[in-house]
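User: Quick sanity check before I run a bigger batch. Here is a single chain. Can you write out its predicted 3D structure?
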Amino acid sequence: LALEKRACNRRLTEASLPAPLQISAANVEEAFAAVDRVGFPAVIKPAKGNEGRGVTANLKTRQEVMPAYEYASGRGQEVLVEEWIPGTDYRLLVVGRRFVAAARCVPPVVTGDGMHTIRELIAKLNEEPDRDDLRLCRVTVDPTMNRHLSRQGFSAADVPNPGRSVSLRPS
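Assistant: Done. Predicted structure follows.
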């Protein structure tokens, strides 16, 4: 169900659980209109998928809408615009209508050593044995990460000062 964003949103609403306002956008003009309805901050994402692929969260300006739409639609599928709801991100596992497990999702972070670029620190992070895309996702540099780094005053080519933690993704 989590892979099908529209169905998941509908099921949450049917269960009287809070769910973000969600609008389908068939083109960038519709994405702009949808953002006007949901307001800022907003999220633009593919209607199907997992692990944040194609998702741009916490959009704060109209200038961010077009690249976010292009990133989400680049996967060749329906695009959704949602209101951004801040808070801690959890993934819940329900089997046979029974809650089985929960995991708190923590955005990846690298810590500067004064010698390596953020891109090189990401490569080192991805060498960790748990980053096997089963237990933990591998970290990739993509438009969402570049935008998130830029908001912090960084690019993937920058060398952070020793001890400086740099958040790699907004969620």
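Helices lie at 5-14, 28-38, 65-73, 118-126, 143-151.

User: Great, the batch can go ahead then.
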